[in-house]
Amino acid sequence: MTYCVAIKLNAGLVFLADSRTNAGLDQISSFRKLMVYENPGDRFMVLLSAGNLSITQSVRELLESQQLRDEATGDMLTIWNVRSMFDAARVLGAAVRHVFERDGVALSRSGVDFNISLVLGGQIQGENMRLFQVYSAGNFIEATSETPYFQIGESKYGKPVLDRVITPRTPLDEAAKCALVSMDSTLKSNLSVGLPLDLIVYEKDRFASDKIVSIDESNPYFRMLHDSWGERLRHVFDSIEDPAWDGGDSAVPIRVHSRQAQPLTKVTAPAGALRSNARTMGRLPPAALRQPYHSGTGAGLGTSTADGLATSPMTPLQPGPASPMRPDAGQPSGHQQGMPDAPDRTGQEPQP
């Protein structure tokens, strides 16, 4: 699995990806999920990928040469000559569909889903920065000021800090720090995401970037961030007052009347239910053992009543042949052998 995040800000773009892939618990490798496409002064684009590794590698390879016919002019478009990031996303979607048409049937026969998620962001001369998320069907959506970031892969662990911090006005360096905290939270909670990381920060209208770094476990900034985030998060947690159920001197009691929700209603046992249960307690096996009975004739399964007792009759056991190891096998027992009669369930002696 993987985790990638891309953030679009007024000041620029931030991209961060891990590099771990796995095919089971005992086959873990590192492959880069981040690719940079740059023509200094003209265009700068970054591609993040998640999903089936063979599919993502095929799409990335095709993207550099994939052509898409412009319906208006008839020209063949590639990522190197398109005049907008929207058209670049169209070319990427066409590459995804090309791989699906080529490999989709064979993958399906082998029980492999066509699983791919992509994020493409950057800037082309003559337009503003743009950020797109591309799906496995080749369709895509664009980031907005209301949703200024995209995540692919294991996104749930790192999402809360992004929601609390990131806005379009967030400075670039602060957004890069937030992305790293988001990644650190994911690394802490999910073993399928791992170091090293690739981080890119792009400044608006530069059409190039030199703020590119690969981060491993020895990186001093990331180690500081990891330790500081854990310690200060714990400090903030400890500084929050515990809930005071009895009110007391707390200025923030927890047990107050809600203006929106009705009080929770408890479900109690009806009158007589406990006495009824007491009479049957111990007579029934656990629910998992209350299986329908087979009839001895093999006629089929019996049915069960509401209290778990079977209604189909049981075929009585037939006496078997005498065993040579037991002299008394096949002989009558009890009073038929001269043994004293046992009292019946009423406590009365049997009548002669």
TrEMBL record:
Residues 271-352 are annotated as: Disordered. GO terms for cellular component: proteasome complex. InterPro entries: Ntn_hydrolases_N. Keywords: Hydrolase, Protease, Proteasome. Residues 342-352 have a biased composition (Basic and acidic residues). Coiled coil: none annotated. Transmembrane segments: none annotated. Residues 302-311 have a biased composition (Low complexity). GO terms for biological process: proteolysis. Gene3D superfamilies: Glutamine Phosphoribosylpyrophosphate, subunit 1, domain 1. GO terms for molecular function: peptidase activity. This is Proteasome-type protease.
